[in-house]
Amino acid sequence: MTRKPAYTPALGRPGLTPAYDMILGLTTRERRWRALLLRQIDPRPGDRILDVGCGTGTFALMLKKAEPLAEVIALDPDEQALAIAEAKRAAAGLEVTFVHGFLLDELVKPHRPFNKITSSLVLHQTPLKEKKRIISSIRHLLQPGGEFHLADFGQQRGIMRLAFRLSVQLLDGVADTQPHADGLLPELLRSQGFKQFQQTDSVTTITGEIALFRAIKAAAGRPTTVPLAGA
Q1: Residues in contact with 208: Cβ distance below 8 Å, sequence separation at least 6, in sequence order
Q2: How far apart are CA 135 and CA 131, in angstroms?
Q3: Could you give the CA distance from residue 42 to residue 19 in angstroms, rounded to a whole number?
């Protein structure tokens, strides 16, 4: 039997999932970084977008609302979070496909190809081996020239390091989150085959600094060794 990938539930404990949206809004300047991420993705008619670790569906629904002619598929292993997402989708009257499970080929293959994939506040809740697997899988699932848009806790400096330790690491543990605090995200992208990437923005919050990245899967026959400006 294949062992399921490891992850930490929203806010570190399953019982806190119903409060996730409220707490995220209060502690992470959610409107700010989600708006930046949405603008960065710039959904267009005909886009096929995968939201990895969609949680309660807030951003997947934002993507669909911003561009009704884009196809949005959203994936998460947390049944409780997806139930909230489905309720939001029904209330909004939007067509978003929510899929229960981990980022595995058999779950998302029917929805390929993807020209844009996004993930927000997911990687910091997974072990290092799983971070690498997720990024590698995302690159594999993208069509050539496709884009990966990431928002997650990045390198923490000064007072942000203390804020991160007293909030995120208190809930989600140190082992999975420390690579983020140490600034490992760029190296993770590079080691899993993304040669063109850049940090596009950052948002300071009371729980630490959230970094936004954009990475491109090299098109066939094009150079892959030159990073985007600002990488």
Answers
A1: 153, 156, 160, 161, 163, 164, 167, 168, 181
A2: 6
A3: 29
Three-state secondary structure call for residue 135: helix
Tokens at 30, concatenated: 């959610």
| Count of domains forming the chain | 1
Q: How confident is the model at residue 229 (pLDDT cuts 50, 70, 90)?
A: very low
In a domain, 227, yes or no: no
Burial class of residue 119, CB neighbours in 10 A (0-12, 13-18, 19+):
buried
Residue 223 lies in a domain: no
Q: What is the pLDDT of residue 104?
A: 75
In a domain, 229, yes or no: no
Provide CB contacts within 8 A for 218, sequence distance 6+: 144, 145, 195, 196, 224
* Among candidate residues 22, 20, 8, the one with its CA nearest the CA of residue 175: 8
Tell me the pLDDT tens digit for each residue of 79-102. 999 999 999 999 999 999 999 998
| 6 in a structural domain | no
User: Please, how many CA atoms are within 13 Å of residue 142, restricted to the half-sphere of its CB?
Assistant: 26
